[in-house]
Design brief:
Strand content: under 5%
Number of strands: 0
Helix content: over 70%
Structural class: mainly alpha
């Protein structure tokens, strides 16, 4: 498992979103990964989900970040 934030974020994304993010500049990947970590830290619903499944919570947070991108 990758320990850097961008790698963890990419791993949490759906294959379609992962391909999209991988094409973006590294700075934007880092910005999205930071937004993903903030989503994980700030959302109480994800805390509950992470108690059941950490990968599911990470995936949901990643999907939320991508939805906010428009």
């Amino acid at each position: 498992m990758t320990t850097d934030t961008v790698g963890r974020f990419l791993h949490a994304l759906s294959p379609e979103h992962r391909a999209d993010v991988e094409r973006r500049p590294r700075e934007e990947q880092e910005r999205l990964a930071d937004a993903w970590e903030s989503e994980l830290a700030d959302d109480r619903d994800l805390d509950t989900l992470s108690e059941l499944s950490v990968p599911a919570a990470e995936s949901e947070a990643a999907a939320r970040v991508m939805r906010k991108q428009g």
